[in-house]
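Morning F.,

Quick status update on the modeling queue. The single chain you submitted on Monday has been processed. Sequence for confirmation:
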Amino acid sequence: LPYQPTDYAAELESAVKGKRVAFGQRLGHVQRIAPQVEDLVAAAAKRFEELGAHVEQVDPPGGDVSDLFKTLWWASAGLLLGNLPEDKKAQVDPGLRQIAEEGTRFPLKAYLDANAARGRYGSAMRQFMEQYDFLLTPSVATTAFDVGQISPLDEDGNAWMNWTPFSFPFNLTQQPAASIPCGFTREGLPVGLQIVGRMFDDAGVLAAAAAYELADPQFGNTPPGF
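Structure tokens below.
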């Protein structure tokens, strides 16, 4: 980030009234999302309207960028972990170790093409965000799964991309984002709302998250039995 003498705590008092907010429940391409996640996030978007924001349900540009992200992230992980001694690799998270092993097989041209596509995607997203102050999405597409399970069961073998389709696009575009609780499922599992801001507007994202926290009467509650 470029240096700015910003008092982030002071900026938390900024209101969201009058802000333009895009609500991208599925980002235009997400096929599978837990129904209770969808309902709770929609209710959270409604709360932003109650706070005076102008909320519009709209999908950002770019479509599905999972293959683009996979090429860049997998190849980078393969490079970073490739030189580790075997005894150190054994200590790495199993999911990350799997990604790194697959990443060593990406050709250089695929990586360079993906990096160029990333630039185009980031440019399109910045133009989109000129119309909005924030973009709301679910944090993830599923509810919490069993401890020790790397990812939810997935019949098409693309488990990583399918349960985290809302986070990695904004790693690619370098936009700030915050994930905050927005309720519990009937089983008592937490659900998150993601607030995405314009590039470099970290203070705005934190302020929007703080405003939601103050307005949600359930914020800070724990599920039954905890």
